[in-house]
Specification:
It is elongated and about 80 Å long. The protein is built from five helices and 18 strands. The strands form six sheets. A five-stranded antiparallel β-sheet has the order 1-2-7-4-5. The chain has 330 residues and is an alpha+beta fold. Strand 4 and strand 5 form a beta hairpin.
Length: 330
């Protein structure tokens, strides 16, 4: 049961039950030590309580949790307590005694996933060249709570400027490559599916606009959608290509005036901070979604516009508004 009563504002607890055992996982979100009571928890001859973080027995549901720290309490039927459990408890006590605890919160900066070169070195029809070199790339992004390439930074801890557009510039080194002038089509992705027998790790929303495993009649030549970043990468690898980075995408569009704004494009710009990952989408979408500033970016966008797209799950990442193009290293 999530978020059971603890009698303390900044201490949160969830309760888990199994075969007569009740276990509470607890977290103190405040910076200082806090005390709380787990409601309805007490020991008696048939039930004994244990603090599993400290490895000790307790006689009531009163807990004291240091700032930004965790706790765990279990109510065990006396009949289930055996030598194995007592050994586990002793090990926990010894481990806690050796622990080095502080309230520092490491905030590792997101790092871009390295880009592998394409297997092929031959351009295909409809690809345009990106001249290698050092460039100053503009990126126009909407200020969001999750920040841009790093974390959200707001003056005085507030949200001043949230949802407004901000432009930044980055110095980048571009490879020599070519980028497709148009997105991969439904027909091209269908050929990949027939040839490779590709099966995604999760099927949620995968090609959900197709009918009976193939594009709808008349849709063969339009950009494929309802594909995740991994789906797009799988196609590119099969074709011996790769996805362009956001910077290669921008340089190709600016250099050759590709059509943009019809549909968002995945780019090879995935970032990780060890916990959360995101990608940068380019292109925009022909539909404009209104109603809330918290909705994802939509509408026609210029080539300099970048949208930060947090990854949750492939089934949620797939969308009618996202397609992709491919690139080849020269």
């Amino acid at each position: 049961k999530p978020l059971v009563d603890t009698s303390a504002e900044k201490i949160f607890a969830s309760r888990w039950t199994h075969d007569g055992i009740r276990l509470w996982t607890i977290v103190n979100r405040d910076a200082g030590t806090a005390e709380a009571f787990l409601m309805g928890v007490s020991s008696d001859p048939s039930i004994r309580l244990f603090d599993l973080v400290h490895g000790v027995e307790i006689d009531h549901g009163h807990v004291q949790i240091p700032g930004r720290w965790i706790g765990c309490v279990v109510a065990m039927p006396t009949r289930l307590i055996n030598d194995d459990f007592n050994k586990f408890l002793a090990d926990q006590k010894a481990r806690f005694g050796r622990a080095k605890y502080n309230q520092d919160r490491p905030e590792p900066m997101p790092v871009r996933v390295p880009v592998e070169r394409s297997e092929s070195r031959k351009p295909i029809k409809g690809m345009k060249e990106v001249i290698p070199g050092i460039y100053e790339i503009p990126s126009r992004m909407r200020v969001r709570e999750c920040g841009e390439y790093g974390y959200g930074q707001f003056a005085g801890g507030g949200t001043l400027g949230l949802h407004q557009t901000r432009q930044i510039r980055r110095t980048v080194k571009a490879r020599h490559c070519v980028v497709m002038e148009q997105e991969v089509t439904n027909q091209e992705f269908f050929a990949f599916m027939r040839s490779s027998n590709y099966k995604p790790a999760s099927n949620e929303q995968f090609l959900s606009h197709w009918v009976n495993g193939k594009p709808k009649p008349g849709d063969e030549g339009i950009p494929v959608t309802y594909v995740s970043l991994d789906d797009a990468r799988a196609y590119a690898k099969w074709a011996k290509l790769r996805l362009p980075t956001e910077d290669e995408w921008y340089l190709a569009v600016e250099g050759h005036r590709f059509p943009v704004g019809y549909i968002w494009n995945w780019t090879e710009s995935e970032h990780h901070d060890g916990h959360t990952s995101f990608s940068i989408l380019k292109g925009g979408w022909e539909k404009s979604i209104k109603g809330s500033d918290w909705y994802f970016d939509s509408g026609l966008q210029g080539s300099d516009f970048s949208a930060k797209y947090l990854h949750f799950w492939p089934g949620m990442d797939r969308s009618e508004s996202i397609s992709f193009r491919c690139a080849v290293d020269l």
